[in-house]
Write a sequence for this structure.
C-alpha cells in the first residue's frame, strides 16, 4: 500500500469532481456531487484499479445539517491493498444514480440503504426492500 498513491488518486478524483479530500479516522475521503457518483465510481474502477464496492451505507444528519443524508461508498483495490471512501450528500427526496452497472455487487447494498434510509437509487435493476417486511411503513434508520 502506498500512501502517496492513494493521496494522488484522491486528489485527482477530487479535482475532477470539483470537491476536496479529507481524512476521516485514517480513511481517505472524497466528497462527490450526487449527480457525478457514477462518473466517480467508473473512474475508480477503470482508471485507478479499484475492483470492488466493499460497502455502501448512509448517515442521517436529521436536524443537524442540510442536505440531510450522506451516502457513503467504500471501494477497495486488491492490486494496491487500498481503500477510498466517497461521501455523497443527498437531500430529502433526492435520488442517487445506481452504480450497479459499474459494480454489480452494489445491488444489495443499495437496496439496504433504500430500505433502511429511504434513499432511492435511480436506475437500480430491482429496488425493493431487502430487510424489512414489504408492508413495513417508513425507514427504520431515519
Amino acid at each position: 500500500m502506498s500512501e502517496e498513491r492513494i493521496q494522488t488518486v484522491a486528489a485527482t478524483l477530487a479535482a475532477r469532481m470539483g470537491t476536496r479530500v479529507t481524512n476521516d479516522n485514517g480513511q481517505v475521503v472524497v466528497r462527490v456531487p450526487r449527480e457525478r457518483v457514477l462518473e466517480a465510481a467508473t473512474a475508480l474502477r477503470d482508471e485507478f484499479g479499484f475492483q470492488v464496492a466493499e460497502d455502501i451505507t448512509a448517515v442521517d444528519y436529521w436536524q443537524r445539517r442540510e442536505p440531510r443524508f450522506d451516502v457513503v461508498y467504500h471501494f477497495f483495490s486488491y492490486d494496491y491493498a487500498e481503500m477510498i471512501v466517497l461521501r455523497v450528500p443527498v437531500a430529502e427526496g433526492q435520488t442517487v444514480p445506481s452504480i450497479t452497472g459499474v459494480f454489480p455487487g452494489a445491488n444489495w447494498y443499495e437496496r439496504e440503504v433504500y430500505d433502511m434510509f429511504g434513499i432511492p437509487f435511480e436506475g437500480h435493476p430491482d429496488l425493493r426492500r431487502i430487510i424489512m417486511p414489504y408492508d413495513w411503513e417508513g425507514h427504520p434508520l431515519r
Notes: Residues 3-122 form a domain with the Beta Polymerase; domain 2 fold (CATH 3.30.460.80). The longest strand covers residues 52-60. The CA atoms of residues 49 and 77 lie 6 Å apart. The first helix runs from residue 3 to 17.
